Amino acid sequence: MRNLAILVLSSLLSMSAMAADVDAGKAKSGMCAACHGADGVSFAPMYPNLKGQKAAYLEKQLKDFKSGTRKDPVMGAMAMPLSDEDITNISAYYAGLK
Ligand code: HEC
User: Fold this and answer.
1) Is the pLDDT of residue 29 over 70?
2) What is the domain-level CATH number for residue 30?
3) Rounded to a whole number, what is the largest CA-CA distance in the chain?
4) Is 3 a member of any domain?
5) What angle do the packed helices 84-96 and 55-67 form, to 10 degrees?
6) Is 48 a member of any domain?
7) Cytochrome c domain: which residues (predicted)?
8) Does some domain include residue 67?
9) What is the pLDDT of residues 40-89, one digit of tens each?
10) Is residue 52 part of a domain?
11) Which residues contact 67 (CB under 8 A, 6 or more apart)?
């Protein structure tokens, strides 16, 4: 029982540290590619490029879309189902593309 408590506690702690998982971010970026391009460079002027953008900036924009602080009907809907962890991972993935 005590071991279980320690296990739960340590996994909670490691979650709050939230090291970005680039592979998980890549896996989650499939639907983003439809507009932002498979490698984060979009094919249409109205869709911004994400490749090589700063992770902290991407993360803030996605959280702002999700909360409605930044308003865009399309991106609001895209960001809605993403968890904070997804957002961290996806941002790290696009930031890391060269
Ligand atoms: C249907 C098309 C579409 C899809 C799919 C889509 N986006 Fe977007 N995205 C847009 C548009 C359009 C904008 C510009 C919004 C604006 O004008 O504010 C945008 C903007 C953004 C921005 C802000 C970029 C900047 O430079 O400020 C980020 C970050 C972003 N999208 C990430 C994503 C991610 C991550 C996904 C997948 C979960 C995704 N988008 C899926 C259309 C899309």
Assistant:
1) yes
2) 1.10.760.10
3) 57
4) no
5) 140
6) yes
7) 20-98
8) yes
9) 999 999 999 999 999 999 999 999 999 999 999 999 999 999 999 999 99
10) yes
11) none
